[in-house]
Structures are given as C-alpha cells and as structure tokens.
Amino acid sequence: MENPILTVQDLTVQIKNQQDITILNNINFDLQKGETLCIVGESGCGKSFTALSIMGLLPKKAKAYGKIMFKGKNLLQLSNEELRDIRGKEISMVFQDPLTSLNPLFSIYEQLSEIFIAHGFKNKKELKTRCLKILEDVKIPDPKTKLFSYPHELSGGQRQRILIGMAVALEPDIIIADEPTTALDVTIQYEILSLFNRLKRKKGLSALYITHDLSVVSEVGDRVIIMYAGTILEQGPKESILNNPYHPYTKGLLNSIPSLEKRGSYLTPIPGFVPSAENRPKGCPFHPRCLKKQAICTKKVPDKTFVSDNHFVYCHLVK
Ligand SMILES: Nc1ncnc2c1ncn2[C@@H]1O[C@H](COP(=O)(O)OP(=O)(O)O)[C@@H](O)[C@H]1O
Ligand code: SF4
Ligand SMILES: [Mg+2]
After folding, report:
1. 281-to-12, 18, 39, 45, 160 alpha-carbon distances in Å
2. Over the stretch 135-172, which tens digit does the pLDDT of each residue have?
3. Ligand 1 pocket, residue 277 CB under 6 Å
4. Which residues, at least 6 apart from 191, have a Cβ–Cβ distance to it below 8 Å?
C-alpha cells in the first residue's frame, strides 16, 4: 500500500485571533491511488477544515502549517493562481449543501459549461454535448430538458447528483466529498452513495469521503480515519475499524448507529459534547466523555499504538 497520491504531513491549522485557536493539531495521513479514505467524526471535529486545507480554501483568518504533498508540490505553498488551476481539474470537491453550491440565478447549462470554459473549451456544440453527458452520467431523467432548467426546478437529490457530475467532469485525480448526503433524505442517500462509487470507479479516482455517520463507511470506504477535536484518534482498514475498533470514541460512534440488526433496539449516543476549539481539554482530548478514563488520561496525550500493520490508535488503554 505504498502509492500515495496525496500526503498530509503534520498539518496544523490555527485561527488568528487575539489568541490563536488551534483547529487542527498535527494531522498526518496519506491517500493511496484509487482508494476511498473516509474521515469520520462528529460535527466540530475539524473534518471540513482538513478538506479546505487541501483545496486551499481556508478562511482568510486561518493559517496552515506542515505539508500537503500532491504530485511533488506542497499545496500549502502554492499561489492562489496555482491552486485555482489544480481545483476542479486535479482535485475537486463536493460540498454538503447542494442548493447553496449552485447559483439560483443561472441555468444548469450555464453552470456546467462554465467549468469547461474556465479550462479552455470554447466550441458551443462541444460544450453542450459535454454538459449533456454529465447529466446522462449521473442519470438525470430527461436530460435534454433538465439541462436548461434552474436549480430550484430540481430535487435536492438531483442537484447533488449534478454537483458530483461536475466534480468528476474534468477527470480529476482526487475527489473530496464533504458530507454530500447529509442534507438529503435517507432514501436518497444510498442512491447518491452508489452514484459516487460508480463514478469514482469508472473514472479511476482517489477519494476522500467525509462524514459524521460511521454507517456510511461500509458503503464507500476502504480505509477510515476517526477524527476528534482536531486530531486523529484511530485509523485503519474499514473492516478492522467496523469489526474490531479499539478507541472508546470509535466504539461510541459504532454504538450510536441504528443498524438493521439493531433496528428498534436502544441506541446509545455518546454522552456530552465535542469541545469547542477554544476549550480543548489537556491529555486525551476525549477524556471528559470517556467512561474508561483513568488518572493518566487527563494529564498525558496518548502515544500512537499499532494494533496491526495498518491499524493504529491513540488511547492509554491500548498497549
Ligand atoms: N472562526 C473560528 N473561530 C473559532 N473556532 C472556529 C472558527 N471557525 C471554525 N471553528 C471551529 O473549528 C472546529 C472545526 O470545524 P469544522 O472543520 O467545520 O468541523 P466539522 O467539519 O468536523 O464539523 C469547530 O470546533 C469550529 O467551532
Ligand atoms: S486515553 Fe483514556 S480518556 Fe482517552 S479514550 Fe483512552 S481511556 Fe478514554
Ligand atoms: Mg463539516
């Protein structure tokens, strides 16, 4: 497993206020060619900041340290122009909310053709053929009519399909999907997941799939990163994380999934809340919510412990 397309090394992101706030603290991972890596954690854990760091889209007040290596370049050191060239063409992103990601004032055709125009395509007939092909690829019914409709005339699921189609249109190397199904009905979620998988496979992309919902991982992931309070707590292959989790936080996330077998049974949410970035606890970041907490947990950050070749965890209980 040594063919990374993207390597994130010691990524730390701070917001510059009167006092600097650390949003991401020393994040390390790589994305292998062709794989889907899931980043999972509750809201506020730093998943979106991780994605935005890669895309060069962090808010102005944020400063990123470390390295994000892609094709021999550190993305954190590129100019805005260089990043603009990479976005869409080499690394593209799908956001959570399909309505705000599309401009309500422009037709689907205008918005789809813009990505091709921005990357040098001019011929009107070719533009139309390419845009139509996107709608066909993502299985929008009656594509010839829908091409000239406006975002509000489509359903949420159709809009998200189109955004995924747009994201893969220029055949990038990497697609980053940040909670692409969270705003949608459960019944539509699985259609979107299978569309994502199909296009990813067909175009041979590597993917970073971000979700707060660990149950989604069994549908899309190859490997999983469990993130909490701006750090990684556990990482491993999907099967290993789902069937043999070590970190109490990962176990908590698994226990709060309404699975088919457990349907109707009592779900156990993790007590307490994700701490805000300003108020992260000392020692193990999860300790205020952990039922297994010991004296050392409030004082010392746990070391990285490998439980198998490619599965590791940060918890004082795991030795
Ligand atoms: N301007 C800001 N000032 C302070 N904290 C911020 C600011 N912007 C974001 N954060 C904090 O950064 C953390 C990570 O946010 P985010 O990456 O959006 O999390 P996720 O995508 O996992 O829900 C959150 O705790 C959020 O409150
Ligand atoms: S290090 Fe301690 S507080 Fe943290 S998860 Fe492990 S047992 Fe719980
Ligand atoms: Mg987010």
Report:
1. 17, 20, 22, 14, 37
2. 999 999 999 999 999 999 999 999 999 999 999 999 99
3. yes
4. 157
- Domains, the chain, in order of start with CATH, read 4-104+150-314 (3.40.50.300)
Does residue 233 have its Cβ closer than 6 Å to ligand 2? no
Task: Report the interhelical angle of 186-203 vs 156-169 (nearest 10°).
Answer: 10
Output the pTM of the full model.
Answer: 0.95
Contact 252, 270 (CB under 8 A): yes
State both tokens at 272: 């307490």
pLDDT at 264 over 60: no
Q: Whose CA is nearest to atom 3 of ligand 1?
A: 15
Strand order in the sheet with 174-178: 91-94, 174-178, 206-211, 36-40, 223-228, 231-237, 311-314, 304-308
For tokens 């010991």, the residue is 294
